[in-house]
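User: I'm new to structure prediction. If I give you an amino acid sequence, what do you actually give back? Let's try with this one:
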Amino acid sequence: MEALLTHLIAAIIGAGAAGYSVYRRLRAANATVDRQNRQLHMLRAQRNAATSEQQSKDGLTSTADQIAFDLMFLLDSERRIIARNESATHSIAGGAAIGKPLAQVLASPELDNLIALAQRESERLEEQLVIGRSNYRVRAQAIDNLARSGYVGVAMRDITDLVHLNRARRDLVANISHELRTPITRIRLIIEGLFLEADKPKRKASIQSLKEIATETDSLLWLAQELLDLSMIESGEAILRLVETPLNQVLDEATARHESQAETKNLKIVSHVPQTYNILCDADQLKRVLGNLLHNAIKWSPPNEAITITAAEREEEIVVTVFDNGPGVPDDVRERIFERFYQADVSHSGDDGSGLGLAICKHIVEAHGGQIWAEGNSQGIGGRFVFTVLKADANFQLRAAEAPASEPERERTHSVAPL
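Assistant: Good question. You get back a string of structure tokens that encode the predicted 3D arrangement of the chain. For your 419 residues, that looks like this:
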């Protein structure tokens, strides 16, 4: 009996020890699960934070793509498309453009040249190109961390609407010029008729007033002409036709147009140009250059002085100088006076002008293959404007095909690119 009781007690003690061991293992397992749950929660929080950050970056990139540029491409060393933004996917490039050269997809050799130059120079280049029927501002830049591999990024902004607005602005200027010319010309004719009629105004004050009206009318007419000239130059409608012409013929006609203006200040226009000089020019356009220079000289000259025109040979060119005894051109503005709408100090002239005349002169002279400049006050007293024009027998390089001309004239008449 005692033996049986001993075995029962031993069994109870053994079962208790086994249960305690199971309890300890279960407790340890629960602790492991809790620790793993905490780690999993931490990993989920980190993943959510990373996802949120990436979404923010994607949003910023997408916003920049859509706002800054219409089309963006990433090209490899062979200038093939390896990535593009969403706008480019749905654009003229299409979704099947990956792996193809960008210039081939857009059919633009000019774009290919720009990208190739950006690869060679490893710097950002920007240019305006016409692709298809649209105008684009194109920026190409080697990627900094991929520059050695020849990777380049290309961004394109459609500026077609802006180009159309600029064209509309030029058309507006042209239309205003035409609208101004008609009433101004009529006023001028009426005033001239008053002086020709038998019953002329007798009072001195009335005559002086009419002269002042005539002067102001001339100024308005000059401004209208300058606006029209500038509009034609910017639109490419002013096409030069270079013809062998005696230089004195152009000078005489330009001078005759400004004699009445010079007489108001008792100025003489003196020419020291040899009769033998023949030049290759568009006479009408060159008369505009001389007319603008004479207009400036008359405006700045003091009364009772002379304006002198000289010419000299220099290799294949004729160098023409228009000199006056006015205040001259300050050295620091010699370059700026040829900018559009730039006006020098007008305190001595009493006439602010439009700031267009010298800009027009620069366009016309450079289209003739010459140069124009002003000599500053450090080089002498008075105003001195100098320009060059080709001799008639110069070795002239055509910039366009010969224009149709009659047989006797074909050897010496050429047309060149628009101004």
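You can read the tokens as a compact description of the fold. Here is one thing that stands out. The first strand starts at residue 71 and ends at 75.
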